[in-house]
Amino acid sequence: MKILYVFRSLAVWGGIERVLVDKMNYLSKMYADEIFMLTTDQGNHSVPYQLEPTVHLEDLDICFHHQYRYNGIKRWLTAHRLSRLFKKRLLERIQSINPDIIVCTTANYLDIILLAKIKKSVPLVVESHSICRVTLGHKGLKNRYANYMYRRGLAKAQALVVLTEEDAADWRNIHSCVRVIPNIVHLNDGDISSYDHKHVIFVGRMDYQKRPMEMIKIWQMVYSSFPDWHLDIYGEGQQLQELERVAQSIDMNIHIHQPNNRIFDVYRDSSILVSTSLFEPFGLVILEAMSCGLPVVSYDSPFGPSSIISNGENGFLVENNNRQAFADKLCLLMSDISLRQRMGKAASVSAQRFSARNIMPKWRELFLSLLPS
Description:
Distance between the termini: 14 Å
Strand order of the largest sheet: 3-2-1-4-5-6-7
Number of helices: 14
Structural class: alpha/beta
Helix content: 40-55%
CATH superfamily of the largest domain: Glycogen Phosphorylase B
CATH class of the largest domain: Alpha Beta
CATH topology of the largest domain: Rossmann fold
Strand content: 15-25%
Shape: globular
Radius of gyration: 21 Å
């Protein structure tokens, strides 16, 4: 089977990028599928995760980000020119590759609209890595137009794949064929945490969704009771400099780190994972850490954490934005190594249900169901 993925770029240390690479590698190795990935903005950036040599990666060299160099009418004209170039090059490559399935992994309506126009009889699958309420929930005239165009393109897709049943309930009001397939997770295959490292870890983009500053505010509530503990924040993003400034100014054992390609070693040298996301479509980091034996304290944000964490068994789900409750649960784990051990061992077992061997057959079944009989 020839499967073509279309995505903007595999250039950052991100959850979607990690999942895409793992899925393409698995399909190529385990099913001997011919896998192609077309990007638009990869440029000279290297892929941060190990991509199998049998996966064909090609950049169409569109560079959509160039439009943001300009303002007003010049930005619009540049965007229009780039979209026409994208359509031309995408059509040429689809005709040359002649895929059996096309997978679009983006919330950008332009990609879906163009694929819907030129895919002809090839089945199109759209992956959602956000949640419906966010993808289609923005207000304003420009966003209403984008929502309208997104729905139009989505209507041409044979299937829409989402990450949780809760999110699927919203999407089913928009599309007739919604499948729930959780992300596969790159799981730990070595030892788990010893639980005696006095380190709490936060891993994620430094942006409005992941809310690392929220975690610093919670840490200020617990630090005086645990001055020998450390908070390690791993990630990159627009809030990096502000986080570094605050961490230095309050001097509470808060350490800001760049993304680490040996993150599983970091998990194993920690004792608790924390997540303060405003919304979390899935929770890849949560499962990675759980597979290393870490109990998790997380806000019960829509919709991922509740599909992963069994409250009181392998971690704690806290009412969204309730800092005091979050601090209380974190203190409970920090003060009790036996509780960390019990929850952490349960976490390492429960994470296995999201392994590639359990999830990828669902993708295989979907792809085969869309092929002509």
